[in-house]
UniProtKB/TrEMBL annotation:
Source organism (scientific name): Papillibacter cinnamivorans DSM 12816
Name assigned to this protein: Ketol-acid reductoisomerase (NADP(+))
A single GO molecular function term of this UniProt record: ketol-acid reductoisomerase activity
Domain KARI C-terminal knotted intervals: 183-328
Domain KARI N-terminal Rossmann: 2-182
Reaction equation(s) it catalyzes: (2R)-2,3-dihydroxy-3-methylbutanoate + NADP(+) = (2S)-2-acetolactate + NADPH + H(+); (2R,3R)-2,3-dihydroxy-3-methylpentanoate + NADP(+) = (S)-2-ethyl-2-hydroxy-3-oxobutanoate + NADPH + H(+)
High-level lineage: Bacteria, Bacillati, Bacillota, Clostridia, Eubacteriales
Gene assigned in the entry: ilvC
GO BP annotations, alphabetical order: isoleucine biosynthetic process; L-valine biosynthetic process
PROSITE patterns (alphabetical): KARI_C, KARI_N
Positions annotated to bind substrate: 252
Record pathway: Amino-acid biosynthesis; L-isoleucine biosynthesis; L-isoleucine from 2-oxobutanoate: step 2/4; Amino-acid biosynthesis; L-valine biosynthesis; L-valine from pyruvate: step 2/4
InterPro entries recorded: 6-PGluconate_DH-like_C_sf, KARI, KARI_C, KARI_N, KARI_prok, NAD(P)-bd_dom_sf
Length: 331
């Protein structure tokens, strides 16, 4: 049984009298910094001179400095810049400014697990990984809710690493939803697998294939968009609320019969075999090596695919439909 923590298990006072540096102010960075600040934590933001995030963080009322200065000033340093840039920043600005008893924190285990960052033994190293996008970590917190977090301790130099991690997770709102104890290895491998095979790669490929099948058969692209893309969230909201059972209670019996007959024809044994291959390539480091190399040679595949994907019909049709929705007015 997984070990879970909730608000009653977390003591925010483990961050009292401590300064937390949030390095990076993007999707996760803005959410962690603002949620912690509103939870009463002393937060600073670490960026680089010329960063486009710098004025945005300052406008939100946060004290901003370079990553090196923020590391010097803080007791807890949470690295929230892009995974592929973390090793270089650590080497240049963070590592040289760490001292015994500080804590280094991550929201994803990639750089520790794949040994791109090797911290000194006299500091705490922990992870608080929200299981959701940064903008949702922020909006859920503002609504009095939270996104579940995974926590893990890689090094416990002070003896308090887990207590500090739980306080941090509570400070960003995770304890309202549930905090699950894990390891850097489990978080890294499951997160990479989930985003590639299911949440991002799997879902977009499924929506695209459905959209294209309908359009190629002569149906209106707008109709295909509503059916295979827009409605996805509405169906998933029901799963989120009450599981597959509640979704199947809400949909028609016709849809439920089609779900049972056709689902296994779309996601077949072959698909599961490929999923296992994807997982193996994550576990044996092939994916990490490819991603690091892709960055070292200027991201040719990433950039070309991003351009092609952003120009596809599904995107242009969807943009037009979303702009005409009543709640989009004035945006
Ligand atoms: N996105 C998400 O929802 C999730 C992300 N994570 C993890 O969180 C971490 C952060 O990812 P994410 O929030 O997506 O990152 P983003 O790409 O959204 O933001 C990166 C931020 O880092 C800044 N930055 C880039 N390079 C440097 C540098 N050299 N020095 C200082 N600041 C720098 C950027 O500034 P500028 O604006 O100038 O580019 C920007 O503010 C990653 O480890 C990721 O795996 C975990 C869970 C979910
Ligand atoms: C699903 C993608 C994610 O893992 C996340 C939002 O949890 C990420 O790396 O952004
Ligand atoms: Mg994730
Ligand atoms: Mg991820």
């Amino acid at each position: 049984m997984a070990k879970m923590f909730y608000e009653k298990d977390c003591d925010l006072s483990y961050l009292s009298g401590k300064k937390v540096a949030v390095i990076g102010y993007g999707s996760q960075g803005h959410a962690h910094a603002l949620n912690l600040k509103e939870s009463g934590v002393d937060v600073i933001v670490g960026l680089y001179i010329g960063s486009k995030s710098w004025p945005i963080a300052e406008k939100a009322g946060l004290k901003v400095m370079t990553a090196a200065d923020a590391t010097k000033a803080a007791d807890v340093i949470m690295i929230l810049i892009n995974d592929e840039k973390q090793a270089a920043l650590y080497k240049e600005s963070i590592g040289p400014n760490l001292s015994a008893g500080k804590a280094l924190a991550f929201a994803h285990g990639f750089n520790i697990h794949f040994k791109q960052i090797i911290p000194p033994a006299d500091i705490d190293v922990f992870m608080v990984a929200p299981k959701g996008p940064g903008h949702t970590v922020r909006s859920q917190y503002q609504e009095g809710k939270g996104v579940p977090d995974l926590v893990a301790v890689y090094q416990d130099a002070t003896g308090n690493a887990m207590k500090i991690a739980l306080a941090y997770a509570a400070g960003i709102g995770g304890a309202r939803a549930g905090i699950l104890q894990t390891t850097f290895q489990e978080e890294t491998e499951t997160d990479l697998f989930g985003e590639q095979a299911v949440l991002c790669g799997g879902v977009t490929a499924l929506m695209k294939a459905g959209f294209e099948t309908l359009v190629e058969a002569g149906y209106q692209p707008e109709s295909a968009y509503f059916e295979c893309v827009h409605e996805m969230k509405l169906i998933i909201d029901l799963v989120n609320r009450g599981g597959l059972n509640f979704m199947r209670y809400s949909i028609s019996d016709t849809a439920e019969y089609g779900d049972y007959c056709t689902g296994p024809r779309i996601i077949t044994d072959e698909t599961k075999k490929e999923m296992k291959k994807v997982l193996t390539e994550i576990q044996n480091g092939t994916f990490a090596r490819n991603w690091i190399l892709e960055n070292q040679c200027g991201r040719p595949f990433f950039n070309a695919t991003k351009k092609k994907e952003s120009e596809q019909m599904l995107e242009t049709v969807g943009k037009d439909l979303r702009e005409k929705m009543i709640w989009s007015e004035g945006k």
